[in-house]
Design a protein that fits this description.
Blueprint (H helix, E strand, L loop, with lengths): L2 E5 L4 H13 L4 E6 L16 E5 L5 H10 L4 E4 L6 H6 L2 H24 L7 E7 L24 H20 L3 E6 L1 E3 L8 H11 L3 E4 L5 E6 H14 L5 E4 L4 E3 H18 L2 H5 L15 E4 L14 H7 L7 H14 L1 H11 L3
Parallel strand pairs: 1-2, 1-4, 2-3, 4-5, 5-6, 6-10, 7-9, 8-12
Antiparallel strand pairs: 9-11
Helix pairs in contact: 1-7, 2-4, 4-5, 6-8, 8-11
Length: 355
């Protein structure tokens, strides 16, 4: 039986991980530490038994130390981060504070409780990071491997690169038992509707423009969040201490193709379910029109990386990881989740004026 602390566990990927871990490891104790900022949501943890949500800031080292000591925590899964690139461009300070200072705070807490106290307790600090730390690829460049040189291009990716280096340093300098995973673009349930897939999905349902940066040919590797959670599970169970593992979805697609799949899947859903037209009367599909007419090209984002791609050779070979969904399958199930959970997302868009 493990005692796990999940930072950022009320956010998108963190909450999915908590649901995933509770279902597969019901004997483990789970504490969630989340500041409940705009992207953290108590409702993401509804229906879960045996999960204790503590509202708090990862920069509060005293709080982190108290939780680790009093709850006999042996595993930290560190998701908490500011993650939206556009927000990092307009307001980078929050990204440095949360992603760098906050990660250092958690590392200090782990070091003090697990190492300095002299207990010798087996432990794990697993740090969840991003493929964006590696920079941008050309059309024919090889995919990012764990040995790829870091070259972050946005304040977000630079802050995550800094946190990665701190985790590595705490292992090599102090002996903290760490692992790191760098993932590609996630999508799935509970994703805050500022990111491409939920934003475009909800815009399509409300007849709003689908704003496409530049020429729409920026390429990303798309990873369903449950496959990501499985990858983290494998690293926690069998990953080598001090190592980094890249986790991808094997779905390298240009944005235009992703948006095209969103449009086609929404159109198909309306054609198969007549009740959707009454629920979402402003959607083009409610009028028998193609969703793709909402496509609108806008000025490209500053410093927009052209291509990301993940080389999964290490995690596949060492740990047996394999994603279970291609993008059409994964998005179809994601659309179904959003259609079935409008009580979850309607308050978010009303509060945030996102669409």
């Amino acid at each position: 039986m493990a005692e796990i602390l999940v930072t950022g566990g009320a956010g998108f990927i963190g909450a999915n991980f908590v649901h995933y871990w509770r279902a597969r490891h019901p004997q483990d104790g789970i504490t969630v530490l989340d500041a409940l900022t705009y992207a953290g949501n108590r409702a993401n943890l509804d229906g879960l038994e045996g999960v204790d949500l503590v509202e708090g800031d990862i920069r509060d080292t005293d709080l982190a130390e108290k939780l680790l000591a009093e709850r006999n925590i042996d595993t930290i899964v560190h998701f908490a981060a500011e993650s939206h690139v556009d927000r990092s461009i307009t307001g980078p300070d929050a990204f440095i504070e949360t992603n760098v200072v906050g990660t250092h705070s958690m590392l200090k807490a782990g070091r003090k409780v697990w190492l300095d106290a002299g207990t010798g307790k087996p432990h794990r600090f697993h740090h969840v990071s991003t493929d964006e730390v590696y920079g941008s690829l050309g059309p024919s460049d090889p995919a990012f491997a764990e040995t790829t040189q870091y070259a972050p291009n946005s304040p977000y990716s630079a802050s995550k690169a800094g946190s990665d280096h701190l985790v590595r340093a705490y292992h090599h300098t102090y002996g903290l038992q760490t692992t790191t995973s760098n993932c590609s673009n996630n999508y799935g349930p509970f994703q805050f509707p500022e990111k491409l897939i939920p934003l475009f999905l909800l815009n399509a349902l409300h007849g709003r423009a689908l704003p496409i940066y530049g020429d729409g040919m920026n390429v990303r590797d798309w990873l369903h969040v449950e496959d990501h959670c499985h990858g983290i599970e494998l690293v926690l169970q069998s990953g080598r201490i001090g190592e980094t593992y890249n986790v991808g979805g094997g779905q390298e697609l240009p944005n235009l193709e992703v948006i095209g799949e969103i449009c086609r899947t929404v159109d198909r859903a309306f054609a198969e379910d007549a009740s959707l037209a009454a629920r979402f009367p402003d959607a083009p599909a409610a009028k028998g029109e193609p969703t793709e007419r909402l496509k609108t090209f806008v000025t490209d984002r500053k410093g927009h990386d052209r291509r990301y791609a993940i080389d999964e050779t290490k995690i596949r070979g060492e740990l047996g990881y394999e994603p279970t969904r291609d993008f059409p399958q994964g998005f179809a199930s994601t659309l179904r989740w959003y259609l079935d959970h409008d009580a979850w997302w309607r308050p978010l868009i009303a509060r945030s004026a996102l669409i």
